[in-house]
Amino acid sequence: MAIRRAAFHAACCALLAAGITWLVLPLPAVGAAAEDGAAAEIQALIQRFASSFQARDPEAFVSLFADPAVFDDPHRGEAELDAAALLDMIRSDFAGIQEVRRYDPVHWAVTAFGESTRVEVTFAVEMTIFETDDAFRITYGWELASVDGAWRIARLWVVDMQR
Hints:
Strand order of the largest sheet: 2-1-6-5-4-3
Shape: globular
CATH topology: Nuclear Transport Factor 2, Chain: A
């Protein structure tokens, strides 16, 4: 396992040196199969989050969350929402977006693994919202929960946003 981790680390360093900014950090030791499976599942969740946002598909987006989920953003504050309330909020948010040209994950890291799995994920975003073109990077913190054998976002908060 130590050799595999060293090789993985070397490969990640080579990617960064080549200017590739998308990075998956290794998870804490929980067994090779569990580590590989969890990383792949979390990566798939990140991709579904990005693609459903880019498509402005509120049903697909909300399906990524636990029911209920805590949604915390700087504009509305923190609220625990059931699936119906979250869907209403996301539909309203997506209605103000005219176009999403880019919503790409550029970095993610598991910051805690186990009972409370936490992930930080940064997206590069380019979109037209309320008739205004905007480009920024946003980093979310996610607390994940296993729901029916799949990772779901139980809590989302904004860690950082840079224009």
